[in-house]
């Protein structure tokens, strides 16, 4: 229904952002709302998906169109609902997920909350051959990419920690990877969050 919405990011909560358009504040649920942290008070384009069922209507939003497409494909998998789909999109890059599907990597897929072996096999069955294009169109994440400033200096680390807490990880779990995160040279808060999720899922 809505391909995307452009507006001002006015507020960020643990599960959603508020995007104001012409005096109307849209509550948009996101995989990781803190990815919009640097855009608070600024205009942003959010790729949206309007989810409608008899008992609920929800507006979901994504920074990248590929993430929205992945979310939509996941909803077509038996046993995957919006909550599971949003969690998967928030904890994996599109490239890594597509790679896991094409290589039938059950171990990677079962690391996501609420995904057991049966659901992982169902995802592979339903999505294999339908996500391979993302492996060529979406660039592979490069952990060795050097940024001009470290997370500790730029504030990315602190924002990433808050994002990980919002995703349900305890302070003790985050403390266990803090040294690795502080030395990781990401280009944005999102980079550091995804690195943290990779470390926490090991």
TrEMBL record:
Entries under SMART domains matching the protein: HhH1
The family database entries (Gene3D superfamilies) matched by this protein are listed as: 5' to 3' exonuclease, C-terminal subdomain, DNA helicase RuvA subunit, C-terminal domain, Nucleic acid-binding proteins
Signal peptide extent: none
Does the entry feature the keyword Cell membrane, yes or no?
no
Biological role:
The RuvA-RuvB-RuvC complex processes Holliday junction (HJ) DNA during genetic recombination and DNA repair, while the RuvA-RuvB complex plays an important role in the rescue of blocked DNA replication forks via replication fork reversal (RFR). RuvA specifically binds to HJ cruciform DNA, conferring on it an open structure. The RuvB hexamer acts as an ATP-dependent pump, pulling dsDNA into and through the RuvAB complex. HJ branch migration allows RuvC to scan DNA until it finds its consensus sequence, where it cleaves and resolves the cruciform DNA.
What GO MF annotations does this protein's record show? ATP binding; four-way junction DNA binding; four-way junction helicase activity
Pfam families tied to this protein: HHH_5 (PF14520), RuvA_C (PF07499), RuvA_N (PF01330)
| Matches recorded under InterPro entries | DNA_helicase_Holl-junc_RuvA_I, Hlx-hairpin-Hlx_DNA-bd_motif, NA-bd_OB-fold, RuvA, RuvA_2-like, RuvA_C, RuvA_C_sf
Q: Which NCBIfam families match?
A: ruvA
Domain comment as written in the entry: Has three domains with a flexible linker between the domains II and III and assumes an 'L' shape. Domain III is highly mobile and contacts RuvB.
Task: State the residue spans of region: Domain III.
Answer: 154-202
An example of a Gene Ontology cellular component annotation for this protein is: cytoplasm
Compartments (UniProt record): Cytoplasm
Enumerate the UniProt keywords alphabetically: ATP-binding, Cytoplasm, DNA damage, DNA recombination, DNA repair, DNA-binding, Helicase, Hydrolase, Nucleotide-binding
Q: What is this protein called?
A: Holliday junction branch migration complex subunit RuvA
User: Into which family does the record put it?
Assistant: Belongs to the RuvA family.
Lineage top rank: taxon = Bacteria
The record's subunit annotation is:
Homotetramer. Forms an RuvA(8)-RuvB(12)-Holliday junction (HJ) complex. HJ DNA is sandwiched between 2 RuvA tetramers; dsDNA enters through RuvA and exits via RuvB. An RuvB hexamer assembles on each DNA strand where it exits the tetramer. Each RuvB hexamer is contacted by two RuvA subunits (via domain III) on 2 adjacent RuvB subunits; this complex drives branch migration. In the full resolvosome a probable DNA-RuvA(4)-RuvB(12)-RuvC(2) complex forms which resolves the HJ.
Give the record's GO biological process terms.
DNA recombination; DNA repair
The UniProt gene name for this protein comes to: ruvA
